[in-house]
Design a protein that fits this description.
Blueprint: H1 6-19, E1 31-36, H2 41-45, H3 56-66, E2 68-74, H4 91-106, E3 113-118, H5 126-133, E4 142-146, H6 157-172, E5 176-180, H7 193-203, E6 212-214, H8 226-240, E7 249-252, H9 266-276, E8 281-282, H10 294-301, H11 308-316, H12 323-331
Parallel strand pairs: 1-2, 2-3, 3-4, 4-5, 5-6, 6-7, 7-8
Helix pairs in contact: 3-10, 5-6, 7-8
The structure holds zinc ion (ZN).
Zinc ion is lined by residues 35, 37, 286.
Length: 386
């Protein structure tokens, strides 16, 4: 063999033939999981994974089995301040320790895992913890909030004031926000169109400069609660009328396809996904527990009646908050294939495309058209020899 990566070249040729130009290279893309968790033994004991928890080594093995290249790991530090569970002495210390543990775990796989800090937004130490996480390179990309676990009720004016402050702080620290916005289900807290409108009108304007990723398509899992559709419809209408507050809002589809919780609403789920637009949707598996291995979660998603192209787009989307990290992660990675001769000249150096993504192409490669500004190059660094 000549050391060429024929598969890669074949894929490029297919793309060129299909598009006639260097179009977005979705077929080179990798699956990104935007909703994962790790659990220290202490956090595991308070949640479904149990006291063995889930560490980065476990998660990476499961991501490998699912063919998922990278994952955004949302710290579960807020679980130590769940007001509906027995209180933990020295709660804030546990919260800090869990965020620190998550940071250290993702640091073991800097090219595969990226951490998000988390905190209960109603706690008096919330702003202090966000500021602390903003200094941690493994956590500073974003903040996870879980309104269900933290029992946030946006109809409560005191809660709303605190959460607005937290959104503002995340914005000031340039941290994206991933939010499980569905109110607590066990305690039947109010949730629906009214709460989504409060979110749109009073929370989003506090974080205008960062991505806000609404988890689970605004559900708490599945898509069988009519209140969820009422809530999601508020955002769908806002997208349709090009409401500027929706500019940086994304949705993850994590947990939507839980068996028995979406099938009779299949057409509605698909309609909402198409109304939102696949460019705003992100894939997520949720915690890799025994009954929710990433491989099964990914497979379940494919039960939704979407087209292969739609799945591909959702699974390969690159949220703006990941771009710099992906670029850095790619540049630390070995090239996909080595140049056959040392003379194969690389004209596009890693990190040189308009989005700061990686692409390396030899000078006489027939595909060396300039990249369109909206190209999403998600392939590994690639050098095609003369
Ligand atoms: Zn989750």
């Amino acid at each position: 063999m000549l050391g060429l990566n024929y598969d890669a070249i074949k894929r490029w040729i297919t793309i060129i033939t299909a598009w006639g130009v260097l179009a977005p290279l979705n077929s080179l893309a990798e699956i990104i999981d935007y909703h994962q968790h790790l659990y220290s033994p202490g956090a595991g004991a308070r949640s479904s994974p149990g006291p063995r928890g889930i560490d980065a080594d476990n998660l990476i093995a499961q991501l490998d089995a699912a063919g998922i290249r990278r994952a955004v790991v949302l710290s579960v530090a807020y679980s130590f301040s769940n007001p509906n569970k027995p209180p933990v002495p020295n709660e804030y210390e546990h919260v800090m320790a869990e965020n620190n543990w998550t940071s250290a775990q993702v640091a073991k796989y800097p090219q595969r895992l990226l951490g998000f800090c988390s905190v209960n937004p109603l706690r008096p130490y919330a702003l202090e913890e966000i500021a602390r996480c903003a200094k941690d390179p493994n956590l500073r990309t974003g903040l996870k909030l879980h309104f269900g676990n933290s029992d946030v009720n946006v109809d409560n004016s005191d809660h709303l004031v605190r959460v607005r402050r937290v959104f503002r702080a995340a914005n000031e620290h340039h941290m994206a926000i991933v939010v499980h916005m569905h109110a607590n289900i066990d305690h039947h807290r109010p949730y629906g169109a009214k709460e989504a409108l409060i979110f749109l009108e009073q929370l989003l304007p506090e974080a205008p400069d960062v991505v806000v990723q609404i988890a689970h398509l605004a559900e708490g899992g599945g898509y069988d609660d009519p209140a969820t559709d009422a809530a999601l419809s508020v955002f769908v209408k806002a997208i349709e009328r090009k409401d500027p507050r929706m500019k940086n809002v994304y949705f993850d589809v994590c947990g939507v396809a839980i068996p028995g919780m979406w099938e009779n609403k299949a057409d509605l789920v698909v309609q909402r996904i198409r109304q939102i637009g696949t460019n705003r949707l992100l894939y997520g598996s949720d915690a890799a527990t025994a009954d929710n291995a990433p491989k099964s979660a990914l497979k379940r998603l494919h039960n939704l009646p979407l087209t292969q192209e739609e799945f591909r787009e959702i699974e390969n989307n690159v949220a703006p908050y990941l771009r710099n990290w992906l670029s850095a992660a790619e540049s630390r990675q070995k090239p996909f294939c080595k140049p056959r001769k040392p003379s194969a000249r690389v004209v596009a150096k890693p990190g040189s495309d308009p989005l700061g993504r990686i692409v390396a192409i030899s000078s006489n490669c027939p595909f060396c058209a300039p990249l369109a500004a909206n190209s999403r190059i998600t392939g590994k660094p690639e050098v095609i020899p003369r």
